[in-house]
Amino acid sequence: MRVLVSGGAGYIGSHTVIRLIDAGHDVVIVDDFSNSKPTVIGRLEGITGVHLPVHSFDLTDVDKTEHLFAHESIDAVIHFAGFKAVGESVSKPLDYYQNNLDSTFSLMRAMDRHDVRTLVFSSSATVYGAEPQLPMTEDLPTSATNPYGWTKVMIEQILTDIAASDDRWRIAALRYFNPVGAHASGEIGEDPSGIPNNLMPFVAQVAVGRREKLSVFGDDYDTPDGTGVRDYIHVDDLAAGHVAALDRIAKDSSPISIWNLGTGQGVSVLEVIKAFEKASGKPVPYEIAPRRVGDIAASYADPSRANSELNWYATKTIDDMCEDTWRWQSGNPNGYPDA
Ligand code: UFG
Question: Structural domains in the chain?
Answer without folding.
Answer: 2-181+232-262+301-311 (3.40.50.720)
